[in-house]
Amino acid sequence: MAKFVVAGKANCPYYAKAELLADYLQTNLPNFRFHKITQQPDKWEWLHDICETNGWEHRQSPIIWRELLDRGGKGQLLGGLNDFLEYAQRYYGITSMMLMEEMLDIAEENLQAHLEIVKEDEEIKSLIKPMQIWITSASVPICYHLIPLLANGEVFGMTTEISIHLLDTDQFKEILCGIVMEAEDMAFPLLRSISEHTKIDQAFIDADIIIVLDDVPLNLEVKSRENHIREVSEICQVYAPLIEKNAKSEVKVISSGKTFANLKATMLRTYGPSIRPENIIAIATSWESAAKAMLARKLNVNTAGVKDVIVWGNITGSNYIDLSHAKLYGYDCAIRGPPNFPRPLLNMIYDSEWIHSEFLSAQSTLGSRMSHCTGILPAHAVATVLQYWYHGSPSEEIVSVGVFSEGQFCIPEGIIFSMPVRFQNGNWEVMTELEINETTQKVLGHLSHELVQEKLVALKEISEMHPYEAE
């Protein structure tokens, strides 16, 4: 049996002619078989590698060789198109009379078909290759609660496998190993692997998503706020270059934690200028959820019925909870409507004094609750925002997220500021169509000033010491 290999560039007319002749021979001759190898035009350096491996001399497309099956498959070079035509004529009395115009048309069809096949293969590989997720400061409780949410399939979809990498300092290695063991024992179908890392120079390799949970606990009796800010800056000075070096170019970076969520995101972009600004966000959903729960208790309704509460400003610092666009669903009152019928929330709270006294002053209470939560709420917040980022947020619903300001709502550019956004098609966009009143605009000015000052302090010269030592 004669078995030939016909290889060439997808857009090569001579390869098209050789391929059709070989197909005709295989169809009409019982002992003729051939295998086709199509290469993209920009990857034709493959020819050099195959010739070097077999000791051949050939420079053009196509290349045709015969595999000697009775000699263990060793290849014998036949040559190019003319050599193949001569062989077919001599041994089988068959040739091809295809004209150049037809050859060019078929070559164009070959190229388009090959590109479609390559695209399909890449899509299949993307499903097989797990998504790489890195979590910093992974010994904290938030991470413990976050892993099951990421691995159960609800965030990225039931066909997307993930690999989770837990990063922390060497002193927390035992905790990380315990988390890894528990996660493996739970046998999540979509969790391809989970591993612990304590060597900072190996961080963020091939990362698709990085979740930054590092916190600098505030203790103003021991250290000034400026010193705390400098600590945050030091952490980001270590992480940012490693993200640029090791992570994928489209990596998504999420800043969460109890302190300096906005500042961490801002400084990661400052020290990592190649990180796409639209791919760095800070999580405000915890505050949003806590505010909705407080309003739901006041109105005696299900928390899920409270929508479009906006958290402006510094998520883990000075922020403002805006109810001017808030809506209420499923409220039991004299006027009834369908389940999707919303009512302006402020119109349903008849005790306006409660809004201005207890609720707004309670923001400090909410802040205290955020700083003392065990990790379930912030873990759920991170998972929810990731789900929105990949699959879109509910239609017409407002989501509060810390994003890079481009001057929206007169907020200074270059700082991470929590504002209303919507997620769709794998991206987010600020809901600039929302109207805000003069009072809110003044509040945003004060909140912006705090974040600008934090950034200025962080940019000052800091010491050479880092929280990690690269090995």
Structural notes for this entry:
This protein has 471 residues and is α/β, with parallel strands linked by helices. Helix content is 42%, strand content 20%. The chain has helices at 13-28, 46-54, 81-92, 100-128, 141-151, 173-186, 225-246, 261-271, 285-299, 345-348, 352-361, 363-372, 376-391, 438-458, and strands at 2-9, 32-39, 63-68, 74-79, 131-135, 162-167, 191-197, 209-212, 252-255, 280-283, 306-307, 310-313, 319-322, 327-329, 342-344, 399-404, 416-424, 427-430. The strands form four sheets. It has a nine-stranded mixed β-sheet with strand order 7-6-5-8-9-10-16-17-18. Strand 1 (2-9), helix 1 (13-28) and strand 2 form a beta-alpha-beta unit. It starts with a strand and ends in a 13-residue tail after the last helix. Mean pLDDT is 88; it is low at 463-471.
Helix content: 40-55%
- The overall pLDDT, averaged over residues, is 88
| Count of individual helical segments | 14
**What global shape is seen?**
elongated
Q: What percentage of amino acids are in beta strands?
A: 15-25%
**Oligomer description:** single chain
* Termini Cα gap: 59 Å
Low-pLDDT residue spans: 463-471
- Taking all Cα atoms into account, the compactness measure Rg is 31 Å
Major beta sheet, specifics? Answer: 9 strands, mixed
Return the structural class.
alpha/beta
- Major sheet: arrangement of strands: 7-6-5-8-9-10-16-17-18
Number of strands: 18
Question: Would you spell out the secondary-structure blueprint of this structure?
Answer:
Layout: E1 2-9, H1 13-28, E2 32-39, H2 46-54, E3 63-68, E4 74-79, H3 81-92, H4 100-128, E5 131-135, H5 141-151, E6 162-167, H6 173-186, E7 191-197, E8 209-212, H7 225-246, E9 252-255, H8 261-271, E10 280-283, H9 285-299, E11 306-307, E12 310-313, E13 319-322, E14 327-329, E15 342-344, H10 345-348, H11 352-361, H12 363-372, H13 376-391, E16 399-404, E17 416-424, E18 427-430, H14 438-458
Helix pairs in contact: 1-3, 1-4, 5-13, 7-8, 8-14, 9-12
